[in-house]
Amino acid sequence: MAVTRTFSIIKPDATRRNLTGAVTKMLEDAGLRVIASKRIQMTKEQAEGFYAVHKERPFFGDLVAFMTSGPVVVQALAGEDAVLRNRTIMGATNPADADDGTIRKTFAESIEANTVHGSDSDENAKIEIDFFFDENEIVG
């Protein structure tokens, strides 16, 4: 199987509770390697641009407000079948439906404050990585 890339965000609910290292450890233990990482305070413009696909949805304003409510950690990850591997360790969007041992089952506070975001396809992974990282920031 080929090594591919995916994108992850450790959300404000997790950074507020100082879970960055614990979440990253779970990603690494699942066979993913962090090849770029930075802690940022997402601006309203960044959040609106990143989540533009949801612009017409009723939760868009709340999502933007949540993602700008505190620092996040954006990461590019690499590994065999990275998107699927990341989505598996993240768990279901609703932590009540997530499998035991997943990030969301372990750490999420709610369906909205669910600790992590991850790309849903190889194509979106590239778009999302490129949104936050220059190629020279990706090492490994």
Automatic annotation (TrEMBL):
Its EC number is 2.7.4.6. Its main location: cytoplasm. The active site is at 117 (pros-phosphohistidine intermediate). Signal peptide: none annotated. GO terms for molecular function: ATP binding; metal ion binding; nucleoside diphosphate kinase activity. GO terms for biological process: CTP biosynthetic process; GTP biosynthetic process; UTP biosynthetic process. Keywords: ATP-binding, Cytoplasm, Kinase, Magnesium, Metal-binding, Nucleotide metabolism, Nucleotide-binding, Phosphoprotein, Transferase. It catalyses: a 2'-deoxyribonucleoside 5'-diphosphate + ATP = a 2'-deoxyribonucleoside 5'-triphosphate + ADP; a ribonucleoside 5'-diphosphate + ATP = a ribonucleoside 5'-triphosphate + ADP. SUPFAM superfamilies: Nucleoside diphosphate kinase, NDK. It comes from the Bacteria. Its cofactor is Mg(2+). ATP binds at residues 11, 59, 87, 93, 104, 114. It is found in: Cytoplasm. SMART domains: NDK. InterPro entries: NDK-like_dom, NDK-like_dom_sf, Nucleoside_diP_kinase. One of its GO terms (cellular component) is cytoplasm. Major role in the synthesis of nucleoside triphosphates other than ATP. The ATP gamma phosphate is transferred to the NDP beta phosphate via a ping-pong mechanism, using a phosphorylated active-site intermediate. Homotetramer. This is Nucleoside diphosphate kinase. The gene is ndk.
